[in-house]
C-alpha cells in the first residue's frame, strides 16, 4: 500500500444497483437492531417478527453476501475457508501485503470456488468497492482498528478477529464508529457459538453450581525453550514474498526488520499485540464474562510474570499470572508457553473453570465437565457430575460453522450477532487491562540473558502490586504514581508516523 495515498472515504464508481443493494442490507441490519431492542424489552426474540417487518427485497434468502477479505495469513485463510463452506457468502476481493502469498498459496486452495476474486494489497480498495457487502478483517492485531473505522464509515458489515484492538484507545474508537454507523459487527470469538460452551454458560448463569466466587482461565503450551529464535534480519530475502515492512508496522514505532515481527509471530511482541493474554485470553476470558456478565469491568488487577526461560527475541512473557478482582468474584489468567503439565501430570491446554458453592464447571474445546461438590449439596441443587462432548467432534466445524452462519443471519436481519461490538470490546478491554498492568508492574527476569532483538524499552522497568481500574474515567488509578502513569500511557498510546484514529486517518 502506498502510504501517501489519501485515506478519505472515496466517492464514485458505484452503480445505482450496487448502492441500492448495499443500502438495503444496511437498512435490514438497522431494522433488525431495532427489532432486537424491542425483543430484549419483552425478553423474547422471534425470527417471524423480523420477517414481518423486513421487505422481501432487502436480501433474499438465496442471495449471496459478497465479502472482501483483509489479511490472508493463517487465520485469514481459515476465515476465507469458512465463508466458502457456508455457501451464503461469495468472496470477491482478497487483500494482503503479500500478493505472491495470495496468488501462489491461497488461490491454489480456493481457485475452484473463487476464480474471479480480485487480489489487492491496499485494504482501502476493498472497502471502496461498492460490490463488497461485508469485510473480514484478519490482519495482525495492530491493523484491526483502521480497517474497522473505514468499513464502518462505508456502511459495510464487519467480521473482525480477536482481540478487537491493540490498545484501549483503539477499542473505544472502534466501538464508537460501529455504534454510530449501525453496521452489523461480528467478533471472531467463535467459542460463543459452540453448543457445549453455551451449555457451560447456561449452567453457570442458571445457578446450577450455585454462587461462583472464582473463575480460572489458562493457556498452557508445550513449546521448545528456543521458541521463535532470534529471527532473521535480512529483509532482502523477503522482498520477493511481498515484504512491505513500513506498512506492516503502520502506526507503531518502526523497528529494524526482523522476520519474527512479521506474519504469525507478531503476536509475541508488545508493539503489535499482548502475547498469550490477547491471543488465547481473548477466547477464554470471553467465555468467563459471557457467564458472569458481558458488561462487567474489574475493580483492580495484579500481575506477576516475565520472560524466565524462553531464549528468543519475543518481548511478551513466557510465564504470567493475572488476577482480576470484580465486585463479587475473582478472575485469573494463567499462561506458560513452555510446559503444559499440571502437578499431577495432566495435560490441559486452554480452558475455563468456574468454581461455585455447589460444584465446578470446566470447559474447553474438547468438551464440558460438570462436577458436584459432595460437601455442599442440597435437595434443591441442580449439580450433577457429567461429561458433555461437543455436538460435532471437529472443533473448527463445531465452533466456526455456527458462528459464520450467525454472521450471515445477522446481515440478513434474522438474528443478532453472537459476538457484537460491545462484547468483543469489553473482552478486549479486560485483556488489555492485564497487559497494561504487566507492562507497568512486572519485571522481566530471565534465567539466561536474552540478547539480540529483545527491545529493552518494551520491558517493564518498575513494579507495583496492584492497579485499580476506574470504570467511569476508563483509566488506571492507585498508590504507585509511576506504575499508574505507565499503565495509562500504554492503554492510550498515541498513533505514530502520521496515522490517526480520526479522519482522514493518515496525514
How would you describe this structure to a colleague?
- The chain has 507 residues and is an alpha/beta fold.
- The protein contains 14 helices and 16 strands.
- It has two domains: 16-193 and 406-420, 3-Layer(aba) Sandwich (Rossmann fold), CATH 3.40.50.720; 195-226 and 275-396 and 423-491, Dihydrodipicolinate Reductase, domain 2 (2-Layer Sandwich).
- The strands form two sheets. Strands 14-13-12-11-7-10-9-8-15-16 form a ten-stranded mixed β-sheet. The chain has a six-stranded parallel β-sheet with strand order 3-2-1-4-5-6, sandwiched between helices.
- A hairpin with a 2-residue loop joins β11 (350-356) and β12.
- The radius of gyration is 23 Å and the shape is globular.
In short:
The chain is α/β, with parallel strands linked by helices. It has helices at residues 16-41, 47-53, 74-86, 99-110, 123-128, 145-153, 168-181, 195-205, 245-249, 276-279, 281-292, 395-411, 421-441, 481-491; strands spanning 65-70, 89-95, 118-120, 134-137, 157-160, 185-187, 212-220, 300-306, 319-325, 330-336, 350-356, 359-364, 367-372, 386-388, 467-470, 475-477. The protein contains 14 helices and 16 strands.
Major sheet, described briefly? 10 strands, mixed
Structural class given helices, strands, pairing? alpha/beta
What's the CATH H-level superfamily name of the largest domain? Answer: Dihydrodipicolinate Reductase, domain 2
- What is the number of independent domains? 2
Cα distance, first to last residue? 15 Å
Number of helical segments with 4 or more residues? 14
Assembly classification: single chain
* Strand arrangement across the biggest beta sheet: 14-13-12-11-7-10-9-8-15-16
The mean pLDDT is 84
Unreliable stretches, pLDDT < 50, 5 or more residues? 1-20, 27-58, 442-463
Helices and strands, in order, run as HHEHEHEHEHEHEHEHHHEEEEEEEHHEEH
According to DSSP, the number of beta strands is 16
CATH topology-level fold name of the largest domain: Dihydrodipicolinate Reductase, domain 2
| Beta-strand residue percentage | 15-25%
- CATH architecture assignment of the largest domain: 2-Layer Sandwich
Measured as a percent range, the helix fraction is: 25-40%
Our Rg estimate from Cα atoms comes to 23 Å
CATH class of the largest domain: Alpha Beta
Shape: globular
